[in-house]
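pasting for the record
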Amino acid sequence: MGELNILPVEHVPQVQRVAALAKEIWTEHYTPIIGAEQVAYMLEHLQSEQAISQQIQEGYFYYLMEVDGVAAGYASIKPEGDTMFLSKIYIHQNFRQQKIAARTLSYLEEIAREHGCRSMYLTVNKNNSGSIAAYNRLGFQKVRTQKADIGGGFFMDDDIMEKTIA
């Protein structure tokens, strides 16, 4: 594996790269899990350039992971008191199994500590078994479930997983 760089997303061209990467990753990974219609809806409402820019204005921090200058994934976090919400961590299929998620998570945990956070939590589709297994390996444990209406007749049916950070 080449050199991993984790870059804060701060400018429009970076937001555009993240939105384009989201479309590739979500179409490939989530279509078999939630179907093409829900993927398209979620991309438009949660992962488009406009949605990402709005989230950044609302206090989310986005990061682009690059390997040798090639976009390999992206992540987003939001401090919530003494807890850090890991809103997104997605790795392109060409870069999976290279410890990019683990290395990115270590980086994000350091940011969480700097914000005074004692734990980190995430939501994951309850049928996304591969990601759930990866989160378990990274130290997250299921604490509860949640079904959220996201509009358009769609729901996110998720496990909430949490990890204590020292």
